[in-house]
Amino acid sequence: MDIFFESDKEVICFCEHVFQQNKQIAVHWQVNEKWGNQLTINYEPLNEIIFQSIAVSLVHVYISNRLRSVIHEIIRDSYYFTDHHEIEKIYELAEWIVTGVDEDSKMLRKHKHPVQLLRAIFLMHIRNAQTVHFDSIVQFGMKAFKKDLVHYIGLAIDEFKREEEHQSFINTLREYVHTKEPMIPLIHVVEGSPFSYYSTVGRQLSKIELRNIMKKAPLYLFGFPEDEWNLAPLIAMAPEKINMYVDDPSNPKTQTIINVFQERVILKSFKDFPYTYSSYEH
């Protein structure tokens, strides 16, 4: 089988990856005057294992060298974004949705497998073919993948807008807290569902006490529901200092508090909580 690439970089990318896939494959590289870089695959017979190795490597070349420009083109031409920063952020989200292996990205794309679709496309073109032109497949054989890609980029734009709205919300809270007179100098917060709040002497604040505190602040301006017990009490108190005792600092609720209160927050390990801990009754 002969595989042609116009780009030297893509030839090297393919060779490195295909050798990782199958060290028994022998490849002869020469330059064809008409078609550019020519790779001749020397393996007898060309069985399904070899086809899979070649297809996976072509997918790797495509994702590494072509996907970025295709996504950028769709963002500009199909969704009419022009701001460089916005395009780059949407690209990052789209690439994550398309290639991500974590549960969040899988859920967003409803557990579809765009990378497997790419592999199926390349397999279709290389089976029973003695000559394969990578650039030709990319230009003319990606209709199904690009159709899905437009949808995934739409999902990425939705995520981007949600992130922008969330950041705007955080900025509003941050400004409010910055200008509000603190009600207390220090509060101890223990991670949980919901968070628990303790005074400087280690007494847990009840939900009745928290609700009375929250009534004194215009929390309705921020759209907090009445049963929001993680962030709203802190916004109402606007303490000078927050000691947070957590097991997982990456918890989104914890990160939100850090983003709003910034240097006022001191993260500590849950095991360092100096008082007796008890969660709220549900």
UniProtKB/TrEMBL annotation:
InterPro entries: Spore_YtxC. This is Sporulation protein YtxC. It comes from Oceanobacillus luteolus. The gene is ytxC.
